[in-house]
Fold this sequence. Notes:
The chain contains twelve helices and seven strands. It is an alpha/beta fold.
Amino acid sequence: MNYTANEAENFVNEIKDRINTDEVDVVIFPNFVSLDRVSNILDDTKIMLGAQNVYFEDKGAYTGETSVDMLISVNAKYCIVGHSERRQYFGETDEIVNKKAKKLLEKDLNPIICVGETLEQRNEGKMYEIVKSQIVNSLNGITEEQMKRNVVIAYEPIWAIGTGVTATSEQAEDMCKFIRKTILEIYNEVVADKVRIQYGGSVKPSNASEILNMENIDGALVGGAALTNDFVAIVNY
């Protein structure tokens, strides 16, 4: 919940021509009131548009919610579902995340499904159990083809979001490798190799190269750094 529509427009205008999209897919996720403005700015670039959330019904009396068709109308291609803040502050469950992901896939949009453990869960040694449960439940009913074509998984250790604390590259790689192994168990090797697994949790220019060069980390879900010029440095590292 950052930037007014004017501020978002100014910021994206400032950075769009400095981002190198030759070898990397870049998606910007503005707040809902800024989506249309930012969409217009990105029209002549290779940068794609994403939304921070969506609802799992097509239409109806769901005051304050936004449908997949509404996202399509502003040319959004991606949508984050199950972000830890949605789970923590708004009570989103794996079941809700699954419904949102399936609705996005039904209309050929790309869900970025977020999973991750709290510091307490990690300290208790339950991090693999928690993350595996989130993945299994969130992917329930999603087909192999949908996984290969559209689904992105983002590992975001809750203890490293907005805290300035970053998981070490080894910790991030370890969990992303475990996520890929879990997907292999649910689907097959082709799907496990094809699916993109991102890391999110205080990614910044100083650690981006080390994290993104790990074998099982295919990208970054950038948070606070995406509000500054650091975003350009991370993409162009």
